[in-house]
Each structure stands twice: as C-alpha cells, then as structure tokens.
Specification:
Blueprint lengths: L1 E5 L6 H10 L3 E6 L2 H9 L10 H12 L3 E5 L5 H9 L18 E4 L6 H4 L3 H25 L4 E7 L14 E6 L2 E6 L7 H20 L2 E7 L2 E2 L25 H10 L4 E4 L5 E6 H13 L6 E7 L2 E4 H14 L6 E4 L17 H4 L9 H13 L26
Parallel strand pairs: 1-2, 1-4, 2-3, 4-5, 5-8, 8-12, 9-11, 10-14
Antiparallel strand pairs: 6-7, 11-13
Helix pairs in contact: 1-9, 4-6, 6-7, 8-10, 8-12, 10-12
Length: 404
Amino acid sequence: MHVLILGGDGYLGWPTAMSFSKRGYQVTVVDNYFRRNACIELDAGILYPVPTLIERAKIWYELTGKEIKIVIGDLTDPEVMRSFFTGGVEYQFAIHPTFAGIPQTVVHYAEQPSAPYSLINHKYANTTIINNLLVTNNLMFAVRDFSRDTHVIKLGTMGEYGTPNIDIEEGWIEIEHKGRTGHFLFPRQAGSIYHTTKIMDTDLLWFGVRTWDLKITDLMQGPVYGLETEESIYDPRLRTIFNYDEIFGTVLNRFIVQAIISHPLSVYGKGGQTRGYLNIMDTLQCIHKAASTPAKRGELRIFNQIMETFNVNQLAQKVKKVGADLGYPVEIKHFENPRFEAEEHYYNPTYQGLVELGVEPHFLTAEVLEGIFRVVAVYRDNIRKDLIFRGVNWLRDEKTTIQR
C-alpha cells in the first residue's frame, strides 16, 4: 500500500512516516517547512536541532534500508496536490525516483496546528485560515478527480466540540425535534480561529462524502504528549520536533520542561480545564488502525482520538510528584488565563471506537512521565526561560498580543 503523508515534517507527521515505513508500506512525505519557518519567525522554543526531511530520510534509509520519498512543496497550490495523483510529482529525495503510484491512503496533517498562533493577530489568523482550508479543499478535489477509492485520514481535534454541557459523542448525534429524528454532526463550538478551521475542514469533507461518495476518517485528537517512538530508538536524530513554548508546545510537554528548569508550572486560571490526552505512540496506533480498516465509500467516519481525560491541575500534580521523585523542586503557579475558555466545566467524551479497532492505550503513568523527564533533561542547557510564556492573549488587540 502507498501512503501519502501531508505535513510529514511535523510533530506527528515524521513519526507517522517512520511507523508506516517500518511496517512495509510505500511512504511519500510532503511538507513546505511551515512549522520550522514559523518557529524561526516567532523565536519559538525547540528543545533540540532537527535534521531536514531529506536528512531524516537518508538517516532512516541508512539504518533500516527502507525508503521514504520526500517532496518539499506547498499544498495550498492545487497543482502540487494534484501531482501526487497524476504522476507529475518531483521528489527531492527518493532511492527509487519513479512515481510511487496513486496513494491508497492519505494522512492529512498539513495544517497550521496552534490555537495561540491563530490568535496572535489578524495576519496569523489569515495564514491559518488560508493554509488549512486551501490544503483540505485541494485534497478533496484531487481525490474526487483522480481516485475516489483513496481513503483520507484527516486529523481533527477534540477542540472542535468545545466544552458542551452534555456528553460528547463520537462525531455524530441523534436529535429528536417536534416528533421527528435526524442523524447530525455533533454541534461544534470552537475556542480559537485554528479550531474553527478544523470545523470547516470537517464540513468540507462531509460535503465531499455526501456529494462524491468519498471515503473519509476524521480523528478528533486531544493534546498529545511525549517524544520517543519505537522508530526513534534507532538514532536520536530521528526524534520528532519538540516544542516547549506557549505557541507550539502542548501542555504536558511544556510542564515537564518547566519542571526541569525550575520554572513554575504555568496553570492558567483555576486549572479546571479538562481535556482528553494521548501518548504520541497511541497516535501512531490510531492512524495505522484507521488505515488498515478504511472508511467505506460515502462514509464520514469519526473517532474521538483520546485515551484518558485530565484537568490541568491534575496534570500539574502528576508532573510535580514525578519531578520531586527525580530531585526537581517543582512549584505550581496559577497565572492569569490569556485564553477565552471555561476554567471549570462538564466534560464527558465517548472514545471507545479506536479501542474497538484494536488500539492498546498507553496510560499516563509515573513511569511514562519519568521517561519523558529523562530525555528532556539531556537537553536542559538548550531550554530558554524567556520562551515559556509569550503573552498571546485571546482578548487583547494585536499590539499587545505577543511579547518579544
């Protein structure tokens, strides 16, 4: 099977590429280095240097003998997207440079992934909207025009749902109204411009499913933590990009970095914000299970991709305890919340679908946290305290939304 990974240089994209390659799939990766360039522009915190995609693919081939084809290209250009289905693609790295063939599976990660980034000011909001929606639309039309049997796995986000005062079902809800019933997408209420674009992605692809019988799996993923995967053990240069800053770093990863440099764990507001979390290794499991059991023609299949739920206070306490056991004097501090969100709320999502497909969860144990602590500690001298909090505020005007 040929798997095309859009956004294959990112936090999840590169580990996904290695995971499929190790399993024997043909893998093609495309990226335009959006995240790397954004990190440079915003002086965001990256824990360690990361080789380019071409360098990574060469290292992977030298260590495993397996090829990952690399394309550096901007997927907001429809012709770049369509080239992966027409044979016009130009590889920047390929051991066998002949056309890999139309992909049976496309994993769509190629989006601006940060809620804070999308609210720095109107320019970054525009970038988020343009990138995310154009890439999704270009993909939808390429599949429609050239390969309607291609299965698209799109990474959504649990943030699409917001924090409703009812249980969150897996994508769909049955509604009875004035004596009649209907099957509808679960109501969405995004908390950022980024999350709004993810809702619009879902709506675009739902249109494609209804109109052209496309095959779509939409994975509503919660915040991911961790940096090691089974594939990165071959060589530390194969580790994924790891951000610890406010803009691109996820909360648990940021807390561990903060603990190691004796920065107070930055709990926003009351700390009752509850979300669903998963280990990066479970993301790889979920993607593979979705690929090996594809959606049917004319189906928008939705899974909630989380393994357990915590509020921010609970995460902070877990990090504090493990940090203390390792000799780090960890302090928890509540900061004024820069985000517009409920700090205490009901949260009860359903998330059994992927487990029923065979995903075996990795739970957030003290041992798992200790493992992340030990890897991050190796790069302690690279960590800059001034990047921990940048001051991106949901409610202020753009002149005061980011501190340099």
